[in-house]
Amino acid sequence: MHPNEICNPTEIQWQPVTVRLRGGIERKVCGPLQGFEILNRHMVGPNSNISANAARCCRLALERKMTPEQARQAFVAATMDQELRAN
Predict the structure, then answer these.
(1) Which pTM value belongs to this model?
(2) What distance in Å separates the CA atoms of residue 22 and residue 78, rounded to the nearest whole number?
(3) How many of the other CB atoms lie within 10 Å of CB of 2?
(4) Which of helix, strand or coil describes residue 87?
(5) Nearest C-alpha neighbor of 79 from the set 23, 22, 33
(6) E strands within 1-87?
(7) Alpha carbon distance 34, 9 (integer Å)
(8) Does residue 21 carry a pLDDT above 50?
(9) Which top-rank group of organisms is this from (predicted)?
């Protein structure tokens, strides 16, 4: 997905976050469902505490037990952690 593409509507959304996956592919993440998928399938070292917490937050947002914005913040922290580990 090109970073400028419009996100597909999902049940729960947050302000889009553009992440760079392995191989340099950029993807726009528009909600906790997409965030959960990215964390579980595409992140290097998904067993880190920060990534595990972000995945848990995304799941809680999907269950409406946490706000999407809180889950987004955890997701951003996990992606920043991944970038630091890659460098």
Answers:
(1) 0.81
(2) 14
(3) 8
(4) coil
(5) 22
(6) 17-20, 26-29
(7) 11
(8) yes
(9) Bacteria
